[in-house]
Amino acid sequence: MKKNNVNLSCNSCVHSRRAFLASCAKCIGAAGVLSGFVVPELLTSCQPASRTRMKVRVVFVLTEPVLTTHDWAPPGYDFNPVMENIMSVLSSGCPGIEFVQSMVANGNEADKLKDADNAKGDIEGYVVVQMTCWNQAVEQLAESGKPVLYADYLYAGSGGFLRFVSKLIYNKAENFAYISSMNYEHLAAAANCMILAKVKGGNRAFVDAVAKLRVGIASGVKVDMTCMDDKFDTLSIDDLRKELKTKRILEFENGWADIIPETKESLGIEIVRRPFAELNDLWEKADRNHAMEYVRKWKYNAEAIVDVSDDTLEESARMYLAMKACLNNHDACGITINCLGGFYGGLIQAYPCLGFHELLNEGLIGACECDTISTITMVATTTLTKGRPGYISDPVMDLATKQIIYAHCVASNKVFGPGGVSNPYTIMTHSEDRQGASLRSTLPLGYMTTTLEMHPGRKEILFHQAKTVANSLVDRACRTKIAGVPVGDFEKLYKEWSPWGWHRVTYYGDLKEPIYALADAVGWKVVEEA
Predict the structure, then answer these.
(1) If I label 505, which of 347, 497, 514, 516 is the partner at 20 to 30 A Cα–Cα?
(2) Do 199 and 312 have their domain in common?
(3) How far apart are CA 456 and CA 152, in angstroms?
(4) What mean pLDDT value characterizes the chain?
């Protein structure tokens, strides 16, 4: 991390590290949010006893310091240097706080730590850093009643971070604040706000100060939101509804059974559940010579191929042929597969990532993780846009750049539809376990995108838009990572992950008008999450 000049001010100008944090203190109106020294105003307003350094426990939430299995970071990932860096930035940036380092893997360990701290009585707050995705601990530590600052280690803990933040927001936790930034000095600035819980009005003052800090940082990031011209036709809503009544989705296997009747009733889309054995049998029978035609095509069009053998590509091509045969056999337009469960359980023999990529490029639907909600969204929106592909992702939120980063190991490279221009791609392993074959699609920049989830059970469409600004090459999380600056309120984007889940589906194009028209036609509500 650079210790000199960073373009991250609350006042939209370049500051030194110390000046930046000082300006954050001014913008949130809270003395004490400084890196490197304590503001005199804070000291003069405190009682003598309050001048003692606050003692805060930093809790890193992860299974093991060096991964021996896979999470959102790959096997072998060493978290030790990351934890050392975070502790160094906190210690140097928060002189009024004494930090104690701990690690927990789950809620039980968090409860034991909390109980031990309560018995001893010296810990006055918690900084909780989500290092891996689904290890749950922050809720248990929030039950302590002490100030809790929750942070994401981006591209590693982001799924759990967003879900748990959202849940605590909905539960109206009063001692809980959060921050997600690639710049650890933002974490230090937020940690300094914990002092306010001790000397300036309790947990409410701390929570409000961190919220104002987030808003100040985001407002200081200025982006030209002018987008590239992108004219395209959509179906009329009447024609869309007629067309959707002809659509069928295949699930392999056991997706969201409770929404099958609602989907048919409200949108007309039929969902059919099929066993892995059917898909695997078609994979076994797939013509190897035909499969090699796709291997040659993928290799010819790829910018590079990294750590993926021709044998693995052939297995992926046979999976594509098996999926295409399933679609033809059932007169379906879309297929969604429990790919992780099927692959790790030995029920399918290849990841479907490259096959999904090929289907999306053809105007069909290949959807990850047996996510029925996202698959429904893709069928409806690809039909609406006359073939544009959707991109399922696991988003990440970076306050430092005011970006939401959409990450997944499957993406089309024809985002404007089968007849549109192609963008570059690299064939790589599946990121989390470094097995099989997937790809990194280098997606076009400067365009307006529309991100959706359609939920027939809730009769709602989740909606936000963003301008694409960067392709991230961070070697954690999924392979394709397209970053966008949202239209609207970045702060509001933290809220909906618990009720809606982590996945979102992104389309190139401004689809606000037809999406609202579809919602009106079927009697649904549009939830604008930004």
Answers:
(1) 347
(2) no
(3) 31
(4) 91
Answer yes or no: are the C-beta atoms of 248 and 365 closer than 8 Å.
Answer: no
Q: Tokens 């003052």 identify what position?
A: 205
Which is nearest to 219 in space by CA: 38, 40, 445, 400? 400
Kindly state whether residues 192 and 271 are assigned to the same domain: no
| DSSP result, 269-332 | -EEEE--HHHHHHHHHHS-HHHHHHHHHHHHHH-SEE-S--HHHHHHHHHHHHHHHHHHHHTT-
Residue 231 located in a structural domain:
no
Give me the domain span that covers residue 416: 237-528
Residues in the chain, overall count = 530
Q: pTM value?
A: 0.91
Sign of CA dihedral 316, 318, 319, 321: positive
- What distance in Å separates the CA atoms of residue 76 and residue 303, rounded to the nearest whole number? 27
Is residue 51 very low, low, confident or very high in pLDDT (cuts 50, 70, 90)? low
Exposure b/e, 111-132, CB count within 10 A at least 16 = b: bebbeebeeeeebbbbbbbbbb
| Residue 142 clears pLDDT 60, i.e. is over it | yes
| The domain boundary residue, chosen from 190, 219, 248 | 219
Angle between the 202-219 and 184-192 helix axes, to the nearest 10 degrees? 150
**In a shared domain, residues 243 and 109:** no
Phi, psi of 481 (to 5 degrees): -140, 100
pLDDT (tens digit, 9 = 90+) per residue, 320-341?
Answer: 999 999 999 999 999 999 998 8
Are both 141 and 190 inside the same structural domain?
yes
Of 24-38, 72-86, 113-127, 217-231, the range with the lowest mean pLDDT is 24-38
Neighbouring-strand partners of residue 483:
405, 470
Query: 206 and 242 share a domain?
Result: no
Residues 242 and 200 both lie in one domain: no
What is the DSSP track for 13-54? S-EEHHHHHHHHHHHHT-TT--SSS--HHHHHHS-GGGGSPE
Dist. CA 490–CA 106, nearest whole Å: 30
CATH classification of the domain holding 23: 3.40.50.2300
Q: Which run of H or E residues covers position 526?
A: strand 525-528
Q: In whole angstroms, what is the distance from residue 413 CA to residue 392 CA?
A: 13
Summarize pLDDT for 11-45 with one digit per residue, the tens. Answer: 323 334 444 444 344 433 333 333 332 333 333 33
Question: Do you find a cis peptide bond into 432, omega within 30 degrees of 0?
Answer: no
Closest CA to 240 of 527, 467, 454, 451: 454
- 3-class DSSP assignment, residue 98: strand
Are the C-beta atoms of 180 and 216 separated by less than 8 Å?
A: no
Q: What pLDDT was estimated at residue 52?
A: 72
**352: exposed, middle or buried (C-beta count within 10 Å: 0-12, 13-18, 19+)?**
buried
CATH number of the CATH domain containing 287: 3.20.14
Q: Exposure string (b/e) for 365-378, b if CB count within 10 Å is 16 or more?
A: bbbbbbbbbbbbbb
Cβ pair 422, 442 in contact under 8 A: no
Contact criterion met (CB below 8 Å) for 82 and 187: no
Number of domains in the chain: 2
